[in-house]
Amino acid sequence: MKISVIGCGYLGAVHAAAMASVGHDVIGVDLDSAKINALSAGRSPIYEPGLPELLTAGIETGRLKFSTDLADARDAHIHFIAVGTPQLQNAGGADLAYVDSAITSLLAHLSDGDVVVGKSTVPVGTAETFREAVEARGARLVWNPEFLREGFAVKDTIEPDRLVYGVADGDTTSVEKLNEVYATAIEAGSPVIVSDFATAELVKVAANAFLATKISFINAMAEIAEVTGADVTKLADAIGHDKRIGRKFLNAGVGFGGGCLPKDIRAFTARAEELGRGESVAFLKEVDAINLRRRERVVELVTEELGGSVFQKKVAVLGLAFKPNSDDVRDSPALDVAVRLNGLGANVVATDPQAMKNARQLHPQLVYGPTDEALADADAVVVVTEWPEYKDLDPAAVHRVVRTPIVVDARNCLDADSWAAAGWEYAGLGRQVKNGREAT
Ligand code: UGA
Fold first, then answer.
1. Smaller CB count within 10 Å for the chain: N or C?
2. What is the pLDDT of residue 331?
3. What is the rounded CA–CA span in Å between residue 390 and residue 419?
4. Ligand 1: does its nearest atom lie under 6 Å from the Cβ of 323?
């Protein structure tokens, strides 16, 4: 099928490449010419495992093209809207300016029978506001939320765990067309759920709200564990054995960040308040507050471990991305911790396998360097993103290069016993400090 993807960021670039990989003719459109030049040359503007290979393959077959000119979407009949919906400045709601501009500009290029497919995360009620304008062009509107995770985006797009189509009443034509777009995934077993617009829009924010709540729940347990001597990781393992609860997304630590969960729960709250149902999701404010408190707790732990002040102490901050396998630092708890420690006068040297460039753009005041530079003569080491290379660090080898063997494991991703056995003072979140320094 002939497809256009409007917006080539974390979502759109992957969607365009994935659709080409399953045999469609795809044109990706974005206003950012640097991004389009990179993509056209087969270079991924973001770090996403598997994406460069998919881009190169798509471009070589001639099925994947990119352009800054929306008029190039004219030949396509299915148009995916994949632009961002960031948080409004100084408010919790979603900024719909990019969605509005993408759909409105696309109208002039639509032909009879085209389908406009919204993938962007929008407040419930948004699709309905565009329906009339799209239908006036003889086209149809569908809302088809995206559930990909950064770091696994290629797999999640090609083999989605579900497909949700929000359609106008009785619009079986769009359902058939989308089934054709996603034929490979459907044949491989991805279930399709067809609903109205509002349900489809809500599925997306409800899913992210649930995930955020699950993380904040376990982080709230970590807060209780910290004052009672309990161990939150054992608690998570134990309750996670109950299949109704499940162990996934129960990792206590510095909390959630990124371009989705934080802004989505705030936008959901704002929308619910507009609808006069603020109380229904009032708990999401608590979810947000618990999450943000964890960042403070990490800074507090480092301060406690350093004897009450971080001033002029060298702190190695391992990790800047909001999670491993990503270079995304949007609302990253890791970057936030580095900035806070730096603000308190610590000599922070921050490192990350992929996210240093993006972090430097946002916070040029921080000192960045490779892992060995960060660790050399450090008074404390803080692991804030659980990259495999940090999880696999040899505690004995790292012990030899730091000044003081203090490690704060803000992701509970290190083996506390082996770090303590190697002579480290180990402090995790929601667990007791293991003092291996006294033994050596
Ligand atoms: C999230 C959702 O998982 C996707 O389904 C959704 O499509 C996407 O948002 C989106 O709306 O576009 P993503 O932001 O890529 O995906 O990241 P997650 O894997 O959900 O992780 C979010 C944050 O939670 C990360 O900072 C991660 O470190 C943190 N987290 C995750 C925890 O602190 N503990 C956990 O147990 C799991």
1. C
2. 97
3. 12
4. yes
